[in-house]
Design brief:
heterodimer, A: alpha/beta, 2 domains, 6-stranded mixed beta sheet, 4-stranded antiparallel beta sheet, about 35% helix, globular, B: about 260 residues, mainly alpha, MetI-like fold, about 80% helix, transmembrane (chain B)
């Protein structure tokens, strides 16, 4: 049985000043299996973030429905962890308290929260930073904490909306490796939104290419590079071939998008 | 000078003091130099001497205490109602829709114009003074706090929702802590305004307080005393502002990192 199924889901935004409604996402069907690492790839404005927000429950679809483990999604919840593109750590909480946010909302007692915090600090390489405030961290460290915060409550599925988009190239590479190693160890179900082709190929087990506005699914490409993936895979011929193929798929869409 | 270029702490202090010196020098020149009649403007030395007499002979410290009590009392009352109400308006749009238009209207009603009415309703006692401060600061506080809370970053609220925070918990777990430093800054700002209202309240129908002393001195043409009173208000304002700032920095250390 599939973990997540998106059935005939579309989203229209109400028209500004009585014009025709703006379609952001045309009806989409999508199933995501347990332990899948799905990447939604497309040019900006293709509705990939809209689709992710619908899955998160932060927005409601105009048509269709979304099922997670057979239950319809109607509102945001801790079973779908989310990492945003903007830095959304709570600036008034320390790194440790940020990681513990979801656990405390769940009502866990402090004795069980403590070990989870130190465990995650270790895993994201921020042991010793537990008492720092977000403003004292670099962008990469903040996004690592945001990933830990989203995973601390052990959600059924992790949603990431261009989480490394604002980071420099080197940091971004390291973050991809960290995320991948967490996924390889924990076998989470992940949906990752990006417009970066290399990032998509490196991370995904499956890439969904989306079309320019209004968004719909254009192609689905399996990435069967072996795990654990090492960063050196990025220079392999297999990797280049996949990248070239996705580049072709995306290019036509980007051209369309640029004319809009 | 380069635009936006920071300066050292020492230079900042020296420049800040320099202008006080320039101010007193210009005042001394005008009075000691005989450019302005003593009847209209006392010189700095006369002012200090009259201030000394006020304190020693006429119990001016008591007036100061009463005025401070009125400002703090009226302001605390206003804040105690305005902060919760402003937070609710910022957080819940129906509450805002209900109250915002009226409060925007009430904000423009000048507190000083209520004084005759308030004397009619509450007499010339302490309650009337507190009510003037209350009216003067309450509506401003509510509106600014509502805007502050309403302007909380949406993505922080969304992050909390995806972490399992219930709608009812968003207020205490996200909106309040996020708006905390701005609310504290608003309180500091409006406290400064409360000082102008208290003096106006004391100018009319009052038997004690700094404003009352100023009106008495006017009858005696004691400009030295008037200026002394005004300067005392300025100093109290400066000190309370400084303390408030220090408190905010301690309470919300995360926001000034």
């Amino acid at each position: 049985m599939s973990k997540l199924s998106v059935e005939n889901v579309s989203r229209q935004f109400p028209a500004p000043r009585g014009g025709a409604p703006v379609p952001a996402l045309l009806p989409v069907d999508l199933t995501v299996a347990d332990n899948d690492f799905l990447v939604l790839l497309g040019p900006s404005g293709c509705g990939k973030s809209t689709l992710l927000r619908l899955i998160a429950g932060l927005d409601r679809p105009t048509t269709g429905r979304i099922l997670l483990d057979g239950r319809p999604v109607s509102a945001p919840g801790p079973d779908r962890g989310m990492v945003f593109q903007s830095y959304t750590l709570f600036p008034w909480l320390t790194v440790a308290d940020n990681i513990a946010f979801g656990l405390r909302e769940k009502g866990l007692d402090e004795a069980s929260v403590k070990p989870i915090i130190s465990d995650w600090l270790e895993r994201i390489g921020l042991a010793g930073f537990g008492n720092h405030y977000p403003k004292q961290l670099s962008g990469g460290m903040q996004q690592r904490t945001a990933i830990a915060r989203a995973l601390a409550t052990d959600p059924a599925i992790l949603l990431l909306d261009e989480p490394f988009g604002a980071l420099d190239n080197q940091t971004r590479g390291l973050m991809q490796e960290m995320l991948l190693s967490i996924w390889e160890k924990q076998k989470k179900t992940v949906i990752f939104v990006t417009h970066d082709i290399e990032e998509a190929v490196f991370l995904a087990s499956r890439v969904i290419v989306m079309t320019a506005r209004p968004g719909r699914i254009k192609a689905e490409i399996a990435i069967d590079l072996a795990h654990p993936r090492h960063y050196t895979v990025k220079t392999s011929s297999e990797f280049s071939a996949l990248k070239a193929r996705l580049t072709e798929e995306i290019r036509s869409e980007a051209l369309l998008a640029a004319h809009v | 000078m380069k635009p936006l270029e920071p300066i050292s702490f020492g230079a900042r202090l020296a420049l800040g003091l320099l202008f006080f010196v320039v101010f007193v020098a210009a005042w001394s020149l005008a009075t000691f130099g005989g450019f302005v009649s003593k009847t209209f403007l006392a010189d700095p030395l006369t002012m200090i001497d009259e201030g000394r007499i006020l304190i020693v002979r006429y119990g001016f410290l008591g007036d100061i205490a009463i005025t401070i009590w009125r400002v703090v009392g009226g302001f605390v009352l206003a804040a105690a109602v305005a902060v919760p109400l402003g937070v609710l308006m910022g957080a819940y749009k129906p509450v805002e829709a209900l109250l915002e238009p009226f409060i925007s209207f009430a904000r423009y009603l000048p507190a000083s114009a209520f004084i005759p009415l308030l004397i009619l309703w509450a007499g010339t006692g302490e309650l009337q003074k507190l009510l003037v401060i209350f009216i003067g600061s309450f509506f401003q506080l509510v509106l600014i706090i509502a805007v502050t809370v309403g302007g909380t970053r949406r993505d922080l609220v969304e992050a909390a929702l995806t972490l399992g925070a219930k709608d009812s918990r968003i207020l205490t777990r996200v909106l309040l802590p996020a708006a905390g430093p701005q609310i504290a800054e608003t309180l500091r700002l409006v406290l400064g305004w409360a000082w102008t209202y208290v003096i106006v309240a004391e100018l009319i129908g009052s038997s004690a307080g700094i404003g009352h002393m100023i009106i008495d001195s006017q009858a005696l043409l004691a400009t030295g005393q008037i200026i002394f009173g005004i300067i005392v208000i300025g100093i109290i304002g400066l000190v309370s502002d400084f303390l408030f700032k220090a408190l905010n920095r301690r309470l919300f250390a995360w926001s000034t990192l």
